[in-house]
Structures are given as structure tokens and as C-alpha cells.
Amino acid sequence: MWKKQKVLTLFFFIILVFPIVVLASESLYSKDSVEVQLLGVNDLHGQLNTPLTYKGEKVGGISYLTSYLQEYEQKNPNTLLVHAGDMIGGSPPISSLFQDEPAVKWMNYVDFDVGTLGNHEFDEGVPEMQRMLKGGYHEDTGYFTGSTTPYTTANVIDKQSGSSLLPPYIIKEVHGVKIGFIGVVTTDTKDYVLSENLQNVEITDEVKAINKAVAELKEKNINSIVVLGHVAAKSNKNGQNPGREFVDMASEIDDEVDVMFAGHNHTYANTEVDGKLIVQAYSYGKAFSKVDLTIDPTTQEITNIESNIIYTYHKGMTPDNQTELLLKKYDDQLKYEYKDVIANTDHNIAKKPNKNGESPLAQLISRSLKEEMDADIGFVHHGGIRTNVSAGPVRPIDFHTVLPFKHNGIVLSMTGEEIKSVLMAQWSGEKENILQFSGMTYDWKKSAKGVEVSDLKDQQNHAIEPTKHYEVAVTHYLANGGDGFKEFAAGDVLREGPELVDIVINYVKKNGLENR
Predict the structure, then answer these.
(1) pLDDT of 410 higher than 90
(2) Which residues are in the 5'-Nucleotidase C-terminal domain (predicted)?
């Protein structure tokens, strides 16, 4: 609300006091064209107060992102603020420990005009996703008013009704010109979200859903169409070498689509493919997309498009005061138990695998899982680990930042042959997906037939026997086939434990951080 009121007040003041300035700005909405600015954000993941670095300079954090968005909105009153999903989920404690309500409250404050769902909006199931959008009660946080952002998702189908769970498109009118926005989420969502959390919906083919929505928009004489897709894309900084799924889809998508905002793979895209602009602004508020449209008010067609990716550098920008107050409110509510020092380290414990493919942080987590769950072997997937542990005092809140997903520990009974099948699955997809483990060793090599796994041994250096049963500790996410590891589903559940983050915190309190 604030942005529209502020811009309109300034606009009428200028009309009354400085009419000559109005004449100079008529190019924004002349008889021949209307200049519309789209500002796009993707993959924020509730990163409200975690700045990053880009080329040695600080970027990110919603206090600075807000100031940038305000500044650009004030340059053009014909601005729409949009996002391409994953605005919540996988969030640090300041958002995740409050059910991501702080992130949604910030989105309400900056007043997004249109948004779509990402896979992480489904992390806690469809009912919780709908509570975030429409409001409702949660036992941990009480009543929440919900999101003020209109959401569109054309390819998420309610199985009971057979219709789109959310509107397949949203039409926005800006100074007499109408723009259609179509939302889609990647069909790969099934690989990142527990099947139980998607049981009431079906995610259909992105291209078919987009083209169906385009046809309906064309019937309404909407000729300027934008897709908000939580679908991966990338390109070089000069627009060359475009790639990933959204780029591959471009030629199959109706030519009436002019702009495609991408997301999901957290990288850079600013490229034209098959006459369609595709943009993506990294993730975590490090940058945002700026797309300028020139639209003919008579034909309602886009006649020109210019785009840029704007980095949210801290230097030279003042953080937004109201956003700072919102952050302080939630930081003050974090319990002291999250901030007590439980260990110290004189070096960073890295998430990134080393040259041997081993991640020191993932090794710590798999070891914690194995020992705290009293199992023979522990496995963790790398995608659930969101950041490093920094050198210095280590607190529970640090591990809540590392492991924001509410995945419980589970012990499975698996045969040696089933464990080998899990290991083989690391190379069964289009790219390697290496699990981190504790309590065993194995060898692997690539050959003309593919990857061969051999010489599986337990912690006592005994051969893992194909028909013998072993107790394998994983998260319930992996146990249900998460991250593409459907082979874990062959195991029988022996027992369940607490959330993975609590398992790791308890282990570190007792054993410290060093390898054992």
C-alpha cells in the first residue's frame, strides 16, 4: 500500500506545482505508448537478514532490497512488482522459526502485485501453503492474516475439483494497458517435496498449462503476456549460452508470451530465446530483475523490451527503516536457548564438498544422525544443507540456519543389496547427486557400462553382505524417496526420532565439532 500512496501523492503534487515536469514525463504514458516497469524477485527463501558478497561487496538483505525497490518504483509510477516463487521455505531462523510469516509480512509491506508458487511453498503441505496465502491459525504462531499478494499458478491442479488450485492467470491494468501474468511451478517439485505434501494436487506440464492460459487470455484480447515460472534458466552475462529447462521450453510456448521470469536454480539469466525475454536474478535478494516494457495503448501490444539485473549493493544505499524494525521485532522474539554457545571452532565448517567429494559439514551431520539414532550407517542429502558453519562460537541458531527444513530422523532396516542400490542411484540421473554418509566405505569407478560400486564395508571394515540387514539412519524426506532417491523406500521403518536439526545440536553439545 505504501508504494502506491507515496507515488500518487508525489505525482499529484508535481502536477499542481510543476506542470512543466509533467510534460517532460509524458513519455511514460503518451498517446503512442505506455512505459511499464516490471521489477522481479525470485528464490528469496526467507533470507531476511543474511547479506552476501558479490565481487567483494556486500549485497542482499531485505532492508536494502526494499530501498532499491522503492527507489526504482519512484522513477516510474507504472511499476508492477512480481516474484517467481520460493520466497519462503529453506529459510533462516528469523523466518523459519515463525512459520515464514515474517517473510510474508515483508512481502505484504513492499506490496507485490503478482506472484507464483515455487516448490518450497509446498514444503509443509498444501494446507499450510494455503494458510500462508489466505490466513489462518497455526499452533506455534497463532492466527496469521495471510498474504496480500495475488498468486497465479496454472499447472497446479486440485485433484478433487479437477481445476487449477489457484487462478491460472491474473490480468493487471496499468494506465489503460492490460498485461496478463501466468504462473507455473516446475514439475520437478515432486523430487523436492515429500509425496504426502502433494497428495491432493497434481503438477502438470508447464508448456501445456502456459499455452492453455495464453489461449484464454487471447480470447480476452490480452496481447501483452508475462510468465512467472519457477523453472530453471541461465545465461552468460552477455546473454549468450542460454540453457536449462525454461530455455528449452521457450520455442514450444505460444509466441504471444513476451517475457518469462525464471527461478529455482539460483543463477543469472538475461537472454532472448525464440523472441521471448528470459530473466532470473540469482537468489536470496542478491539482485532483482528490471524489465521495461513499451506498450502501444491502441493495439495493447508490447513494442519494445529492455532488461537488466540490478545488484543490491549495500554501499551507497540506506536500508529501509520500517524493514529494519520488522527484523528487530522477530529477532527479539528468538529464544535465548537459540543463542547459547554450544561449541567453538577456529575454522569454517564447509558445506561445499572437497576434491574427494566429501563435505565436512555434511560429514558432521551424517555422523550425528548415525550416532544419535543408534544406527549402523547414516546418510544425508546435500540439498538439505543450506549454508556453512562459520569460525568462532557456534550456537543452536547456526544449525537452524544450516538445516531449516523440518525433517525428522528415521531408522530403516535395509539389506546390503538395497544399500548398494542407493549408492548406484547417485549416478542414475542427468548429473551426479552424491550422498554424504557415515559408518561405511565403498569404492566406485566409471566404465563403459556406467558407474560400478564395489567393496562395501562397515565401520569395522567388514564386508557389507548383500542379504544381511543393516540399520540405516536417514531423514523422513529421504525415506520417502526425496531428492530422487526412491531406493530408500525399499527399507522398513524401525523407529523415528526428532528433527534433524535437534539431532545435530544434541550431538555437538556432547561431542563437539571435530571429526571422530
Answers:
(1) yes
(2) 341-488
